[in-house]
C-alpha cells in the first residue's frame, strides 16, 4: 500500500512538472494565438486578451490555469471558440486510443510469435530472413512508411482508402487498416527482435537443460517453462512502446487526416492554442503514467522476485 501511494505521488509530481514545463515553453515561443497577417484593432485584441486571461501577468495565468485543471476544466480552445478543450479531448481520445491500442496489440500478436520462431531456429536462413525484415521495419520511420502505404495500397492498388475517419462499420474498419499498420510496423520489428534475444537466453538456461535431460517435450519446455520468463523484457518494453505509439500518432494522424490527439496537438502547437496543447499533454501524460503502473503490476505478476525486491 505504501509503495502504491508512493507511485501515485511520483505520478502526480511527474504530471505537474510536465504541465509546468509545457506551459513555460508555450509562452516562451514567439507569436500568439490571435496573431494574423492583418492585425485586429487594439480594442478587439484587448477584449480577446481579457476573455482568455492573457492580459494578466504570467504567474497569475499559471495559477489560474492550475486552478481550472484542479476542477477538471481544461479551459476554452483559442482556435475552436465553439468548443472547450474537454470536449475536443473527449472526441479525440477514443480515436487515438483505438488506433494505438490496436496497433500495439498487432505488434504483440505478430512480434512475439516471430521472435519465438526465430529463436527456435537461430542461425538458419529463416531466422536471418525474419531478423532482416525486422531491421528494415526499424529503419523506416513512420513519416516515410505512412505515405508509402498510401501510395501502394490506396493510389496504386486501390484496395484501401487514403485517409478519413468514420462512416459505416465497414468503412471505419477500412479506414483503420493503413494507420494501424503504419503505427505497428516499427513496434512489430522491435518486439520480434527483443523476443528473439530474450528467448535465446532463456532457452539456454541451466534449468531448461536439466528439464530437457529429464525427457520433457520441446513444446512443454517452451510453453510451460520458457515463455513466461522469456517475455519479461517484452513486458518491460510495453511502456516505451506506448510512448512510441503516442508520439507516432501525431505523424500518422496528420498523414491520414484522423481527428485524434496527435493531430490536435500538432494543430494546437502551430496555432499557439495554449489550452489545447496543454490539455492534450496532460491527458496523454496521465495515460502514459497509468500504463506504466499497469506494466509494473504485470511484471510483478510475471516475476514475483520484482515484488520482493521492492
Summarize the entry for a quick read:
Belongs to the binding-protein-dependent transport system permease family. The protein has 310 residues and is mostly helical. 78% of the residues lie in helices and 0% in strands.
Would you spell out the secondary-structure blueprint of this structure?
Layout: H1 2-28, H2 42-51, H3 58-70, H4 85-120, H5 125-139, H6 142-156, H7 169-203, H8 206-213, H9 218-230, H10 232-256, H11 261-270, H12 274-302, H13 304-309
Helix pairs in contact: 1-12, 4-5, 4-7, 4-10, 4-12, 5-7, 6-7, 6-10, 7-9, 7-10, 10-11, 10-12, 11-12
InterPro entries: MetI-like, MetI-like_sf
Subcellular location: Cell membrane
Domain ABC transmembrane type-1: 93-299
